[in-house]
Amino acid sequence: MGDEDWEAEIIKPHMSSYVPVFEKDRYSSGANGDTFNRTPASSSDAGESNKRENTTTVGSFGAGKGFGNRDFSNKFEEGDTSGFWRESNNDCEDNQTRNRGFSRRGGYQDGNDSEAPGASRRGGRDSKYEQDEGTQRTGGLFGSRRPALSGAGNGDTYQSRSCSGSGRGGYKGLNEEVITDSGKNTWKSEAEGGEGGDVQGPKVTYIPPPPPEDEDSIFAHYQTGINFDKYDNILVEVSGHDAPPAILTFEEANLCQTLNNNIAKAGYTKLTPVQKYSIPIILAGRDLMACAQTGSGKTAAFLLPILAHMMRDGITASRFKELQEPECIIVAPTRELINQIYLEARKFSFGTCVRAVVIYGGTQLGHSIRQIVQGCNILCATPGRLMDIISKEKIGLRQVKYLVLDEADRMLDMGFGPEMKKLISCPGMPSKEQRQTLMFSATFPEEIQKLAGEFLKSKYLFVAVGQVGGACRDVQQTILQVGQYSKREKLVEILRNIGDERTMVFVETKKKADFIATFLCQEKISTTSIHGDREQREREQALGDFRCGKCPVLVATSVAARGLDIENVQHVINFDLPSAIDEYVHRIGRTGRCGNTGRAVSFFDPESDSHLAQPLVKVLSDAQQDVPAWLEEIAFSTYVPGFSGSTRGSVFASVDTRKNYQGKSTLNAAGFSSSQAPNPVDDESWD
Ligand SMILES: Nc1ncnc2c1ncn2[C@@H]1O[C@H](COP(=O)(O)OP(=O)(O)OP(=O)(O)O)[C@@H](O)[C@H]1O
Questions:
Q1: How far is the C-alpha of 477 from the C-alpha of 130, rounded, in Å?
Q2: How far are the Cα atoms of 30, 178, 272, 376 from residue 308, in angstroms, in the given order?
Q3: Ligand 1 centroid to 345 CA: how many Å?
Q4: Which residue ranges does the UniProt annotation give for the motif Q motif (predicted)?
Q5: 396 vs 408: CA distance, rounded Å
Q6: Which of 123, 163, 237, 326 has the most CB atoms at less than 10 Å from its CB?
Q7: What are the start-end ranges of the E strands in 204-281?
Q8: What is the distance in A from the centroid of ligand 1 to the CA of 677?
Q9: Ligand 1 lined by 297 (C-beta under 6 Å)
């Protein structure tokens, strides 16, 4: 959808003449009324909050343009939004529009704002790192989005507002993911004179609060759902040479007692298919590319065998050193996801001498360094922050034995791929023959599989649980034909029916995330938002508010599409469909996790989404969902280059795309019988 269209919607809303039928009975009505009474910010609160924001951001970069700067009683149709929408309507425009926006808006908030003293209150810092931080250029040209009011890591400025659809001024700094409109990321390292170039931006001083240390919190988990046992019936294909047999139980993995205790405390009693196959493969020292449906336990599938190896190798306790040399590096595309992986690593390594550390953009660099120098065996990092830390010589790569790319297809695509290549060619990084490289995702487009060859030993194994790129069958998918001018009305109707069940609403642009979040708050639906233009503190606050149910609706861009494992997300609504089908699969995978059921409703606007009709029909039918006749009609009448409707296509590589390997392939119901399949690359063989 173009910028102009959105401007039009703001100016003349509710113009639709076509309101699609909504299947009310597919939704539980929930605690009607309650949800909306819980609406957060009274208008006076909001006003107060907005007053504060206006005070803090006047004269700063982008100040006053976001919806968050308005009192909620304001109408969005106001004319001054037009420039706002034109300027940057999607994530991919960031890099270009930042330049333009900067020169138009004039100036950004200076780094020496009131946040610095807040940060220094924390004390205990190494002055050298403070100095490092002082020269950090995380914002480059465009990094100024720092609130001037709150103390570092406090976050209280916005905590009081349930609706945090803040589009406050400025743009995010470097060293963090930028999701483009095609769902791709772009990233430039400050260390390499990336987009920040020579121009110095203000410091990032946010220090995330430490996670709770008590055992109950560390091992907190949600219950597996009614369909957990059905995982056993999913077909698994392993391709490549000499794959070790799958294990059926945790006991067979022969892990050490501490790990077994941790697994039990985490509530894991039974392996998921991806775990049954991946754990023995990793324990055997093999490289692996594993593809399994969303929410099926891929994180533990790589963490457990890596930890088992470390324990078996008699890893020594990591201690304070200026240069740390971790044995394992895990990278993931978003900050919230890498933090989640870190928490899993911390959980499974509980009671061992293995120390996991997490570093990610949007937080104070000095804080990342302080975490690292205290000892680091497993480093969980987003790519930008990782490269910065490496360039500062706080991390040496010589000891790396395990390199894990979670959401590997994203890590290798146009956005992060070049950085990943730099990582593996960094001085000291063991060659692929010397390290073990592991890649996990729910989607593995064919062209990405080809790129992966550069990272993996030629004899890597490929595990495909179910359909590569397929949606989780525990998610009931509904596609509604909704024109752009009817979407808001439809959204409100659905949310009112849902009641206070946790719902993620995906939109395609950051600006629209603000807009919709604020709109829903105005409709008295308690909502928060997460996207790349929000400060890290705000992002974490939003996620926290959503997780705990304070705000049962989270409006998000694709930054929240992958990996996030949030208990009780019962609904995903694609207010806008993403431009790529793999992103759709990841988004709807935020619900229906770990054997639980979930629902996904997507608004299909024939004007803008026709290119998705074919792949959508395929995803729906593969997941045994109803395919609306109208969608099939559009699919048949739409020619999509490169999409054949078969299992081949850019997204639907159904198995290992290596054409010429001589290995064997096994096609099994996970954990049960195993048979050798003669034709390892027969895409249709288990379709
Ligand atoms: N064997 C198991 N038994 C019980 N719960 C499990 C098991 N394995 C994983 N889980 C839980 O299932 C949930 C989903 O796991 P995880 O986040 O690793 O999924 P994923 O496959 O990585 O999903 P995504 O593709 O969305 O990243 C987590 O809460 C995790 O703790």
A1: 50
A2: 44, 35, 18, 17
A3: 13
A4: 248-276
A5: 23
A6: 163
A7: 235-240
A8: 29
A9: yes
